[in-house]
TrEMBL record:
This is Uncharacterized protein. PANTHER family: ANKYRIN REPEAT-CONTAINING PROTEIN. InterPro entries: Ankyrin_rpt, Ankyrin_rpt-contain_sf, SecEffector_AnkRepeat.
């Protein structure tokens, strides 16, 4: 089932779920998150017990999978938005950075230090536009 999930073959995953007993591992959801197969993630979430690890959110952030990041933050408890924020910033995925910025602020009282870390990650990886956007958000946050 892991291989079928890894390649985004939802119908095969469904068939295996209903007709076989081997199951799958957490890796099935983790890898799917990075590849953006939200339909497979939702099926596994609703029908399997294996779940995922914090790697799912990080893989999705690394690959710029905004819909998957949003779904994971809403429907799963694994993963730390602050860590995923740094990963998204390092890879230059501005839309994911903006979403996770809001998620971090909502979940952490002391969000500035982790956002500063994301700024450094973006700069070190050569994404000054992402770093600049985060800096602007921090300035506005201080004024609130």
């Amino acid at each position: 089932m892991d291989d079928a999930a890894e390649n985004g073959h939802l119908e095969v995953v469904k068939w295996l779920h209903h007709n076989r007993r081997e199951g799958c591992s957490e890796l099935a959801m983790d890898v799917r998150a990075g590849n953006g197969h939200l339909d497979v993630l939702i099926f596994l979430h609703e029908n399997r017990r294996e779940g995922c690890t914090s790697a799912a959110l990080n893989f999705a952030a690394e690959r710029g999978q905004l819909e998957v990041v949003e779904w994971l933050c809403t429907n799963r408890t694994e993963g730390q938005p602050a860590t995923a924020l740094c990963v998204a910033a390092e890879h230059g995925h501005l839309a994911v950075v903006e979403y996770l910025y809001d998620a971090v602020r909502a979940k952490q009282r002391r969000s500035e230090s982790c956002i500063r870390k994301a700024v450094r990650s973006a700069m070190e990886a050569g994404h000054p536009a992402v770093a600049d956007q985060l800096e602007q958000k921090l300035k506005r946050q201080r004024l609130e």
